[in-house]
Amino acid sequence: MRILCTNDDGIHATGLAVLEKIARTFSDDVWVIAPENEQSGASRALTLSAPIRVRKVDEKRFAVTGTPTDCVLLGIEHLMDSAPDLVLSGVNRGQNIAEDVTFSGTIAGAMQGMQLGIPAIALSQARGFRGEEAKIPWETAETFGPGVVGQLLKHGWAKDVLMNINFPDVLPQDVKEVEVTTQGRRDHHIVYADKRTDPRGGTYYWLGFRSTLSNPPQGADIRAIYDGRISVTPLHIDLTHMETVHKFKGVLGGAPPKVD
Question: Domain ranges in the chain?
Fold first, then answer.
């Protein structure tokens, strides 16, 4: 099996090293193609207005001056000598649950693999639930990643679906179970823009996340992570809301309306 590993935290990220260890439990043919610098929050961005440079770090290991989507695209089309059998993206430094999945470069890396017809899995290690001072429990992803990925590969999934795995912010011995979940939604916004002043008196802003919890229902990815379970969520690229499609088909379909 040939595996392409990417991420959005960059080529030097701890989570990428964890991902490579997980990949090597399945194959020795592991390629690492990751952003030169952190691309968190890049989502599905493509680099269209600047050249993309590639630096060969080692055998089957490349750093790319682009986004996770760029990395997977270049990897499959130019850097690898043949297409991978699996794309793994992560292990992200922090959870990618609920509406996070629409910001995530980690999810985007897996999504690009899926778009190119290759089975793809995004992996994230949750953090921040035990206090800001607590170390990220990378050993949780490293301990359970091979087993969860192995079960997914054994049973397979639809070609237009990517799998999103989130490991809870607990030590391995405290993980309760694995739960197949749906994408959740927070009941309040946690992203904010902090207004600051630079040494010359100019104003700038820094985006961040508030560490406040929601009250998600059982079965949602966010609830699973809150409760110490590994969350596995099948995602797909179609964002269509069918209930609204059906609602408006009866009132807006047909000849375009004109205002008298």
Answer: 3-185+215-250
